[in-house]
Amino acid sequence: MDGCSRPGPLFSFGVIADIQYADIDDGYNYCQSRRRYYRSSLQLLANAQESWSESAVRPAFVLQLGDVIDGFNKGCAASDRALDAVLRQFGSSPLEVHHVWGNHELYNFSRSSLFGSRLDSSPRSDRAGPDIYAYHFSPVPGFLFVVLDGYDVGLLGRPESSDQYQSALSQIRQHNNNQDLNCPPMLEDLRQRFAMFNGGFSKAQLDWLHSVLSDADEKQLKVTIASHLPVHPDSTCPICLAWNYDELLAIISAHSSVVCVMAGHDHDGGYCQDEETGVHHLTLEGVIETPPDSNAFGTVFVYEDRMVLKGSGRISDRELLFCDKNKKLSLIA
Ligand SMILES: Nc1ncnc2c1ncn2[C@@H]1O[C@H](COP(=O)(O)OP(=O)(O)O)[C@@H](O)[C@H]1O
Hints:
Layout: E1 11-16, E2 27-28, E3 35-36, H1 41-54, E4 62-64, H2 72-75, H3 79-91, E5 97-99, H4 103-108, H5 111-114, E6 135-140, E7 143-147, H6 163-173, H7 203-218, E8 222-227, H8 245-253, E9 258-263, E10 270-273, E11 280-283, E12 296-302, E13 306-313, E14 318-321, H9 325-332
Helix pairs in contact: 1-3, 7-8
Adenosine-5'-diphosphate (ADP) is lined by residues 29-30, 67, 71, 103-104, 180, 182-184, 197, 265.
């Protein structure tokens, strides 16, 4: 036996973002700069499922980072059909799937109808609040995953008559005076994020996260946060950032337990390691803008001291070392 061999992973999980399936011909993004492969995205999901199923270390679960079907389905009255197709594909293997909600979920379905639906993977009794799709789960002792709701504050999926809609409208209008609120403010800075296809985290959700992380700090857990919207400006283009990303970053930096934030939404992907906290911010390349002869999924192998992302196709391999706990604690103190 080789005495120098490193111990194997504690567990692994699959990651995939922005599948945006629709049974329509290829098209382009709004700026006409990126091709979108609406139909073939289902086959790329099938490729990912096949790889996870055949993996020597069976993934403990799959993290679906939002935008599972495209908003175009709504206009064709095909939302349920498209969702059936995607969930049938996910269901072809016994892997548990944790669904994050993105803007395209909310183009197809109202927020109220998503709660309790097949895209609701939360344990109902244990959400951040009755109207907040944020929850946590622990696949293996010592590790916690927190799914966040990036549209808890926002215009999407809510009746215009609701207080929450009106409050989000006045918030976005402070920064965006375009007639079409999907058109980001014509600015060169991070205020470009104030577009209707983004949203933010309510105070209730942030308070809940703070208490979940306090408990995780105490128990010395390693926490990975999953959000459709990226929250670090160096991990995405500014147009895709969460409205109140800064409030989320402040909470993360006040806790020693967070090791990684995983997001979707920016189909080009992105990555940075926060210099101050050592937290890794990984934005996964989107399936929808991935040619049929490539792939966009990953398998993350988790060790005591690191996570290793094995990417496929457009997603690169990465080693994400966990920052030294004592260093983090001294930064917080
Ligand atoms: N620059 C823009 N100006 C106006 N509308 C836009 C702009 N960018 C996107 N949109 C609109 O916003 C919605 C979401 O855009 P989309 O590119 O589909 O989002 P995602 O990046 O989540 O796939 C679509 O209806 C799209 O037409």
